[in-house]
Amino acid sequence: MTTVEITPQERDELAKALLDALEPLAAGLRARATGLPVERMWNAEPVEVALSVLSAWKVVDAEVGRLAAVAAATAGSYGANYEQLGGAWGITRQGARKKWPQAVNRPAARPGSLELFGGSAELVEDEGGWRWVATGADGERGAAAAGHRSREEAAAHAGAFLAAHG
Questions:
Q1: Helices (H), the chain
Q2: Within a domain: residue 3?
Q3: Both 61 and 93 in a single domain?
Q4: In 3D, which of 123, 165, 164 has the Cα closest to residue 144?
């Protein structure tokens, strides 16, 4: 397993950025929960304010988990295996398989097709290079004219479209 470490300065900068981003979320959650205006967030009992901040961190934690799952699925769609995913996250291969069970488990696809994030794409080669046509899980359709130099390049672009519309 690979352990990713950051410097104390990077940790301080990250903490500041996260706290700056958290404050409006915590205030909004507290305002909705209490019916009080956002600007009165800090005019409460300290325990109530602290619990509002804790609730906001829970929302952030869930969103980080969702974004990490998207990143794992994206890496898996490009060929990463569970050992690599685990190494990037600092867990074992088995831990990665448990955390992101669908990240590497790709359905058997026809040659020239791609199925990711609940959508699908067809990859076609012609005189001008590779092109793709895709339908995202949200029903959005997208396409790229010929011009990609390889199947892999076309698949990467189609995969990015499918991720955005998953």
A1: 8-34, 46-77, 82-89, 93-99, 151-164
A2: no
A3: yes
A4: 123
Of the candidates 117, 104, 112, 149, the one whose C-alpha atom is nearest the C-alpha of residue 133 is 112
**Residue 81 Cα distances to 51, 88, 110, 149, angstroms:** 39, 11, 21, 25
Query: Which range marks the domain in which residue 150 is found?
Result: 113-164
Check residue 1 and report its DSSP letter: -
* Mean pLDDT, range 64-78, rounded to an integer: 92
pLDDT in tens, 120-163: 999 888 777 888 899 999 999 988 877 788 888 888 888 889 98
State the Cα–Cα distance between residues 29 and 48, nearest whole angstrom. Answer: 12
Tell me the two tokens of residue 43: 């005019």
